[in-house]
Amino acid sequence: MATQHSSAPVVCSDVTRRYDGSTGRFGTSGTTVTALDNVSCEITHGSVVGVAGPSGSGKSTLLHLLAGLDTPTAGDIQIYGTSIQTLSSRERTAFRRSHIGMVFQRFHLLPALTAVENVALPLVQAGDSRRKRRDRATELLDAVGLDGRHKHRPGSLSGGEQQRVAIARALAADPAVVIADEPTGELDRETGKQVLDVLTDIATDRAVVIASHDEYTLSRTDRVIKLRDGRRET
């Protein structure tokens, strides 16, 4: 289903992210909070890597940096040969659309659109033709086990079905990296298992990163990066 990407790993080298209290994100004015402190890791093509740690450990910060939603204060992040922190905001957005797929805990589907329309959204932004968008979205929904559900809106789908739509949408642009933030957090164990089956299957020809608190979810990954207080545990 996916085209072949370079086998080079995703590499974080000595990555630090600090936030000034004046931004209002952490702390109070005049304080600086280190959300991620000198973290290095590699995520190889064809692997599923878990990111674990308690609340405030830096998991979300690491995912945001890998997705190009934020940039490090220090260090280097390379995604298949591109140092994403060197890109402008517009360039990072374009890079993310082409190379990185995001899966969220609460699905983030548009309720007024059908499953096939939700999956096709990234291809609208890419400028693909209507027919190409429909064919690609249909292919992906079938691949995640939702044949026959193409015209259903999110409100008429179960939680597991909505998450599979979200995974199909994340794959629409054939990204080299898929980042999933607590993808089973809203699901029961059996439904979560089905979603993890899909995520591990798609890792055959891309890199998959899954942040989770759940021990079963983490047990399904090839290895786990453990964070605590912004630092990587050894």
From TrEMBL:
<dbReference type="InterPro" id="IPR003593">
    <property type="entry name" value="AAA+_ATPase"/>
</dbReference>
<dbReference type="GO" id="GO:0098796">
    <property type="term" value="C:membrane protein complex"/>
</dbReference>
<keyword id="KW-0547">Nucleotide-binding</keyword>
<dbReference type="InterPro" id="IPR027417">
    <property type="entry name" value="P-loop_NTPase"/>
</dbReference>
<dbReference type="GO" id="GO:0005524">
    <property type="term" value="F:ATP binding"/>
</dbReference>
<dbReference type="Pfam" id="PF00005">
    <property type="entry name" value="ABC_tran"/>
</dbReference>
<dbReference type="InterPro" id="IPR003439">
    <property type="entry name" value="ABC_transporter-like_ATP-bd"/>
</dbReference>
<dbReference type="InterPro" id="IPR017911">
    <property type="entry name" value="MacB-like_ATP-bd"/>
</dbReference>
<protein>
    <submittedName>
        <fullName>ABC transporter ATP-binding protein</fullName>
    </submittedName>
</protein>
<dbReference type="GO" id="GO:0022857">
    <property type="term" value="F:transmembrane transporter activity"/>
</dbReference>
<dbReference type="InterPro" id="IPR017871">
    <property type="entry name" value="ABC_transporter-like_CS"/>
</dbReference>
<keyword id="KW-0067">ATP-binding</keyword>
<keyword id="KW-0813">Transport</keyword>
<dbReference type="GO" id="GO:0016887">
    <property type="term" value="F:ATP hydrolysis activity"/>
</dbReference>
<feature type="domain" description="ABC transporter">
    <location>
        <begin position="10"/>
        <end position="234"/>
    </location>
</feature>
<dbReference type="GO" id="GO:0005886">
    <property type="term" value="C:plasma membrane"/>
</dbReference>
<dbReference type="InterPro" id="IPR015854">
    <property type="entry name" value="ABC_transpr_LolD-like"/>
</dbReference>
